Amino acid sequence: MKDAQPKAIYLSDYQSPAYAIDKTHLQFDINEDVTLVTSKLEMRKLREEPLVLNGQHLELVSVEVNGTARGQGEYQVDEETLTLDDLPDAFVLQIKTHIKPQDNTALEGLYKSSGMYCTQCEAEGFRRITYFLDRPDVMSEYVTTIIADAKNYPVLLSNGNLIETSELEGGRHKAVWHDPHKKPSYLFALVAGDLMHIEDHFETMNGRNVTLRIYVEPQNIEKCDFAMGALKRSMKWDEDVYGREYDLDIFNIVAVDDFNMGAMENKSLNIFNSSCVLANPATTTDEAFERIEAIVAHEYFHNWTGNRVTCRDWFQLSLKEGFTVYRDAEFTADMGSRTVKRISDATVMRTAQFAEDAGPMAHPIRPSSFIEISNFYTLTIYEKGAEVVRMIANLLGPDLFRKGSDLYFDRHDGQAVTTDDFVKAMEDASGVDLTQFRNWYSQAGTPEVFVSDEYDEATQRYTLRLKQTCRPTPETEQKQPFHIPVKVGLMLPNGEEAKIVCESGADFNPDTQVIGLKGEEETYTFANVEARPVPSLLRGFSAPVKLRYNYSRDQLLFLMGNDTDEFNRWDAAQTLATDILLELAGDVSNNQALVLDDKLITVYKGLLENTEVDPAVIEQLLTLPTLGYLMEEQNPAHVHALISARKFVMQTLANELHAEFRACYERQQDSAAYDYNSEACAKRALKGLCLRYLMLASEVDYSGLAKAQFESADNMTDQSSALRAAVASPHQALAAELSDRFYQQWKEDTLVVNQWLSIQASNDQVSGLDDINQLLEHEAFDIKNPNKVRSVVGVFAAQNPRHFHGHDGQGYDWLAERVIQLDALNPQIASRLAGPLTKWRRLAEPNSSQMKAALEKIHKESNLSKDVYEVVHKSLVN
Known about the structure:
The chain is of the alpha+beta class. It contains 27 helices and 33 strands.
């Protein structure tokens, strides 16, 4: 344990900055051994107190105020701050520092990646570059000068517009960039390297011509076209849907191999993890194409939701991330299948975010405190934050929501604001009172909505009773009621949907069919319902809550076949499968024989033979609930019983329906050349799912199908799905053969090799930790590269439950060792990898004690980073 516990930072202690930085002049003199950073800050004093600048891992060279040097006795410097006093009301502060980007394994601030210099400043990386007021509410105009060797670093990029270039003595050159839009330091960016680029142009809605460039290392130049198309589609969509236009003459994207995050929205110079921008059919799966399009859109949309309007402090992080995730989700829905996208988002919430809400790191989407802000780049901030924005849209309707967003942008352009400012704009534009809705921002946890009903045949009245509760979380035990939009439909026995006439109830919108649940208990009565309906509740996952209604299995089957809301058809299938799986897990625990309910077999048979419904929806309907979701529904979770139950169901379905899976597989075959479009992607997804089931069948050997698909594939989706099907099957000789061929074919392509590492790490058919340790020694693995660490360590903990949750607890101990090892190199990555260990209280024995012991092993380490310490300490005490 640390000798001195890191101190928490509290939202309640927020104070506005005492100094303003009107203009920031930065000069980077890049050399192989050291980089000299000169910052010249035009500053104003806003109130009388010492100037305290943030700084980490810096060598201070000199300090000048208005051209006069200050000696060591005229300032105070420690590991994290530089303090000056006796300053005039307005002054120019010049600071010179030495930094060593080539030694920066934390990948924050300025660092070197594969011979390229690049930056990552969100959240607090800028303080690793120079001493500064490194906080979001200090916004400044930047002029950046970069000097470097012209041969090794011919491309020099920063924010804004390029205003000057020149050749210097000694084979060096200089570039000067000016960003006219004031921004906080976390949006600063710099890149220097030997790069190539593709170029395109976009004409904005007001006729401005914007130059678009994507910079990559030369070997990747053929993989940029899709991302460029995605960028242009994003720019057009933002104009059409939100009326937002790009505001500079140039927009640059750079792909970097070593990056802690997916991408970063730095003003006009977006820096991307290479996995989130490089794509072509031979090396990129359909899923990755969709992810790339969404991330390109996300970072572009930040230009307004994050850059033009930014957050006042890091407690307001969801202000920009929640709104932007909502925007990129809507963009993806418009580009492809809205139903499938909604299913995907709901699955993430139910499987991972609900677990976060139920764990020791639970926090509101506007946290009240933190020790290390990097730990709050969470599903709660992003995905739940997006769901909260979606709830506002559900309550207001599309027209008033657009009116509210317009007011928000117009009112706060160029400002650093809060979540309250966002909600207030929505209220003022719509006239809807969102006072109680603000509880979503200040309270953690996942509300549960319990629903009961009754039908009066004589009066044809149908009544719904709703009750909301929320379990205690670390910040508070007693929860105030949430404002929960519950979208409803009433399905009649003849398969038609009843016209809803609400006779009584506190808040019901007939246009959207949304109940605005505010009280702890509320009753709604609907008139003229000609027969007892089956309620279709929480349509479209209208709120991030757990719905509790006692559906019979026959009612679930009815909804699967008749509900006019496609999301709820899928949800009925998931509920039915979950009910069956949990029952079977209980049988496993009680050593009873396992028998699969014929209803599930009948449902799957019907789905496999259905040629009318979109294959994308069929694929989702045929996908069993994830182990993570099942663990959330069983408390405490008996992991191995759940694994056994899920394996039994898949094996039984494969054996009982192998002919139907084969026929469905053949119907999805397509002789046309690869094309990334929603119809083709749906067919490939359904084909891949059928193959996974077929490879499990024991009565007929379908291994030849996987091998044939692997060998004939003209795209990575088909090739990798064949490999995954083999690896997840009993056919391990074939899996070994295909794995070796795959690696030999693609070993020169880093991103494909990362896919290969992930597939190997997820293989629960082999011996376990011995094989995982061999991956750590493999020539393709690099402990300093976050993508490779996530591909092996992250995937093993998340996707190899049999060995991670092994009976001896060694999987937990192994992960603890990796966290300790990585903490010395990259604390951000280490703290995120510790996440699976935080769920120990949710598990049954002996897993619970074994997982706790692994956490305690980490906690005993001296000199833990704040990142890892916060996660581990809270996991043990909360």
